[in-house]
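Running this now, will post back.
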Amino acid sequence: MAALFKLAWIFLKIGFIFFGGGYVLIPLLHRIMVEQYQWLALREFLDGVALSQLTPGPLAMLATFTGFKAGGFVGGLISTIFIFLPCTLLMLFFSSRYEKLRNMELVKAALDGFLPAVIGLVAAAAYNLGTTSLGSVRDFALLGAGFVTLQFTKASPMLVILGAGAIGYFLHFS
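Update: finished.
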């Protein structure tokens, strides 16, 4: 029971900073899930990040996966509920006050400050994932192909992920 309360508390705290997209949380999630509590091995974490890209709310699905690994079905349910609870409550609070808040200089200045910080967090997440999962020429080739495809075409990210998975499968078994 204490483990379930721990899951609830940790994912409630994560949920309070789960804005700006889930990618900004990858370094934090890695530190908590892999290093601090060892709920996931590094390979499981990386696989979870990759597989979660195929689902709606990608990193929230990683929370569900981690909760399931740490506490079974109930752990998965608790992790999912508690990672979404803060943003749901905050959205309900702010959406009813949006018109009043959006014209305040303090709010405008804060929002202008968020964007560069979020970009930095995404860059840190990319660096952390890259240093732990890119180890061969093939990995870098797939990275480059995925980047070019997403940057210069209208291909769906899901197709890029599935395509890279298919290439990895065929290269492994050929």
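Residues 4 and 71 are 7 Å apart (CA to CA). More later if anyone needs it.
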